[in-house]
Specification:
Distance between the termini: 9 Å
Number of domains: 1
Shape: globular
CATH topology: Pnp Oxidase, Chain A
Order of helices and strands: EHEEEHEEE
Number of helices: 2
Helix content: under 10%
Strand content: over 45%
Radius of gyration: 15 Å
Strand order of the largest sheet: 2-3-4-7-6-5
CATH architecture: Roll
Structural class: mainly beta
CATH superfamily: Electron Transport, Fmn-binding Protein, Chain A
Number of strands: 7
Largest sheet: 6 strands, antiparallel, barrel
CATH class: Mainly Beta
């Protein structure tokens, strides 16, 4: 199955299948360029409300990588898996967007606004 790519400056629309896939998962990989101009990729837990992706965790506030993420920086969030271990059937969604970190009290989270998506195998 060929990947489908969508690009919009406004809100990205997700199909029902894509939404089910995203709602059934919580682990992703986040890629970004830090202020030191080095590329980084790291596993993250996420929540999705249908419009934004939210990253959080008990040690996010103390993570050197997250402290290095500039505001409104471009990121890529990859949610993928293999549909069946017996037949190599990869599937996933790659989301590109902008990330902002916000602190409320002692709680830090990162919100990603999707601007593009590429989907395969879903």
């Amino acid at each position: 199955m060929r990947p489908t790519r969508h690009s919009q400056e406004t809100t990205i629309e997700f199909t029902e299948r894509e939404l089910r896939y995203l709602m059934d998962r919580s682990l992703a990989r986040l890629a970004f360029i830090c202020q030191d101009q080095q590329a980084h990729i790291m596993p993250v837990l996420f929540e999705f409300d249908g419009h934004y992706f939210y990253l959080s965790g008990w040690n996010l506030k103390y993570s050197q990588l997250f402290q290095s993420v500039p505001q409104k920086t471009k990121v890529t969030l990859l949610i993928d898996d293999i549909n069946s271990p017996n037949t190599w059937t990869p599937r996933g969604i790659e989301i590109t967007g902008t990330a902002e970190s916000t602190e409320k009290g002692d709680y830090l989270y990162v919100r990603i606004k999707p601007v593009n998506k590429t989907t395969w195998g879903i």
